[in-house]
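Sample entry (149 residues):
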Amino acid sequence: MAKRKRLKSDPCPVARALDVIGDRWSLLIVRDAFDGISRFGAFQKNLDVARNILSDRLSQLVADGILAVQPASDGTSYPEYVLTSKGRALFAVVVTLRQWGEGHLFDDREPRSHLRVVDGSTQVAEVQVRGADGRILQPQETRVDKVAG
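Predicted structure, serialized as tokens:
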């Protein structure tokens, strides 16, 4: 199998982000970490992924600063994988993907998981792209200033 081309020096922020979290297993690991999973065995059980793939993705997420390895909080010898501040900054990305999936990939009566505010006081609002003035922007109202090259 051909080694994938790394995009660490690409001038596009989307390309660089996908280089780090664009693999489905990596993003599902991040999702599970937000759900409180922190142990190798729990990731493997929840994702039903091969050990070698999980090991590779966890190592890469640690190398990229998305996860950190720390001693187990319960004193056992099994390390825990925890989100770093860089990893926690992916929360809006995961929520946006969730909301897109809810809106476009399920029939109305099809069962699915739901994201809720822990205290039950309110639902999670739809993530929207807004201008600095607070108004919701549509794609045609934005542009990318590309690097000359």
